[in-house]
Amino acid sequence: MHRINILHEDDLSIIINKPAGLAVQGGKGINFSLDEYFRNFGAVLVHRLDRDTSGVLLAAKGLEANRFSRIFGTERKAVKLYTAVCAGRPEHDKGIIKDELLIRGSLKKSETRFKLIKTGSITDINLEYSVLELELETGRMHQIRRHLSMNGNPVLGDDKYGDFQLNKKLRKSAGLKHLLLHASRLIIKEEFNIDVTAPLPEYFKPFI
Fold it and tell me: Which option is the CATH number for 80-181: 3.40.50.2300, 3.10.20.740, 2.160.10.10, 3.30.2350.10?
């Protein structure tokens, strides 16, 4: 059973630091999901994180669900910041990745802002890596993972879009078993005055 850290709770919402590996929605072969967890608080999820991504996740209580859904959806007033550790170093220290992504058979406009936080290296496997802060301008499925991979800087530990041989070396040399992508901060300035930060998981520490 995963231990779930509640970052904030009030009459309108509950915000947790989602552990990696925990499914957001139930389904075949899933014994426990966050949908089920939040029902115990009378709350419903209004946005999603990949199963392998950790970090800030908000569920709305009662009648506030529709308002929160619009803030995360059509109004796009929620600022979601991520921390990722990727292979190599981007060509620029900051910028916007605008590669279109194939979604259900159609190419969709997709934008990811990024800023370089630091670089590092693991000498025994000849790896240079970068720590990035990222912000989603659009919300496509696996957007950060796909954008970074398409630009030659896959997220370390990504078993879907990443460098599989490199991940194998990292498991052996650094004991890395998780995707190094974390939803680090959520800001909703209007109405709800939310600004919540989720501490990085322990497995980030060798790279941070």
Answer: 3.30.2350.10
